[in-house]
Amino acid sequence: MTWFFLTLLSAVAWSSADALSKWISEDISDFTNVWIRFLYGTPIFLLLWFGIDIPQLDQTFWIAIALVIPLEVLTWILYLRAIRLSPLSLTIPFLGLTPAFLLIVPWILLGETVTVIGGIGVLTIAAGIYILNIRTSGKGFLEPFGAIRHEPGSLLMIAVAILFSITSTLGKMAIVHSSPLFFAGCYYPVIGLLLAPYALSQSNVRSEAFSHPGRAALIGLAFAVMAVAHFYAIEIAKVAYMIAVKRTSLVFSSLLGFLFFREKDIRARLTGAVIIVVGVFLVVMG
User: Fold this and answer.
1) How far apart are alpha carbons 90 and 94 in whole angstroms?
2) How many Cβ atoms sit within 10 Å of the Cβ of residue 199?
3) What's the total number of domains in the chain?
4) Cα–Cα dist 226/8, whole Å
5) Per-residue pLDDT of the chain (286 residues; tens, 9 = 90+)
6) Which of 34, 59, 82, 227 has its CA 20 to 30 A from that of 219?
7) CA 286/CA 284 separation, integer angstroms
């Protein structure tokens, strides 16, 4: 059960980073909000090198790294483009598809399989995520699916969900062939470095990234805690289970949104949260 508690820690840290990001979202652009996670998290990741024993890296590690880093960057770019092109209510719910895709992708790439009960739990969590994020606007729960035909952001977010399932699986492959701390110490700093040329070429990003150093530092800290706990958990747990349980971050985010930002629709969000918790119970049983 160590993986379970590490995953919950990762989920709480992720939701904390989201809440802090929302706190400064009115003053900075969406891209800056994403990039500061890498920018302010990188010093913490680099500190990990003082306690890392560099493992012997084989061909599988380098293949996984060569694939996962560009895919991770592409995923974040598509994510930002999706939420810019279409309403959040027609894009974010599709992130709930990631656990469902993780029933297939790790089986193909890693040979991982899940039990029937565990699989039902993963799908239950996916359904809970969808319901938690839905904004029906009087058109029903299937409104985001109907929007696929005329909302490019909806289709892009489905691609993002697929890519997240692939990057999670490739990330585990790299961790198994190295170590959690080593992977954390190089993975996100490299992504931040790849995003830096574009970020620094934009005058608004350069100014926004350093406009709230205290809050941004807290975001970087939460992001680093999330990553280290994530990598340790995914090393010892099946990818589908770990990522599904990590999506409880959406439950914590909803609670933080209600407590600190007085967000509405708490009843609808609690319905999704309860379904997610049931799914988590089934995953643990599985």
Assistant:
1) 8
2) 19
3) 1
4) 9
5) 789 999 999 999 988 888 888 788 778 887 888 889 899 999 999 988 887 788 889 999 999 999 999 998 888 888 878 877 776 666 766 777 788 888 899 999 888 888 888 888 888 888 877 776 665 444 556 666 665 666 787 788 889 889 999 999 999 999 999 999 899 888 989 988 888 888 888 888 888 988 888 989 999 999 999 999 999 999 998 898 898 888 777 777 777 766 776 666 666 667 777 787 788 888 877 6
6) 82
7) 5
